[in-house]
């Protein structure tokens, strides 16, 4: 079926992103056979997106904790003094 090709390609892409960036990535794609399944899985008590979002936050917090983000004092960019050095690439491009 068509959705199987989409799901496989998406899973491979997400896996590659996770491997290349060493960042946890969630697979949050609904694979459905019809519109009714999509509605059930994306609304109300069956909303899969809500559980994926919660999982993403939990994974991010766990990773930050494992990397010591909550216990060490944050060191800021020497040029900007407004954000951590790794964020400098995104915040001011001076990294």
Key attributes of the depicted protein:
95 residues; mainly alpha
Question: How would you summarize what this structure contains?
Answer:
With 95 residues, the chain is mostly helical. It has helices spanning 2-21, 35-42, 48-66, 88-91. The protein contains four helices and no strands.
Give the arrangement of secondary structure elements.
Elements: H1 2-21, H2 35-42, H3 48-66, H4 88-91
Overall pLDDT confidence:
76
State Rg.
18 Å
Number of domains: 1
- State the assembly state of the protein chains: single chain
Would you kindly provide a written description of the structure presented here, covering whatever features stand out?
With 95 residues, the chain is mainly α. It has one domain. The protein is 54% helix and 0% strand. It has helices at residues 2-21, 35-42, 48-66, 88-91. The chain is flat. The model has no long low-confidence stretch (mean pLDDT 76).
């Amino acid at each position: 079926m068509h959705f199987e090709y989409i799901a496989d390609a998406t899973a491979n892409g997400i896996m590659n992103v996770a491997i290349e960036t060493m960042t946890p990535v969630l697979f949050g794609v609904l694979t459905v056979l019809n519109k009714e399944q999509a509605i059930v899985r994306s609304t109300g008590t069956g909303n899969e997106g809500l559980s994926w979002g919660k999982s993403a936050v939990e994974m991010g917090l766990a990773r930050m904790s494992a990397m010591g983000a909550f216990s060490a004092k944050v060191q800021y960019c020497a040029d900007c003094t407004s954000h951590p050095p790794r964020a400098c690439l995104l915040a001011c491009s001076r990294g």
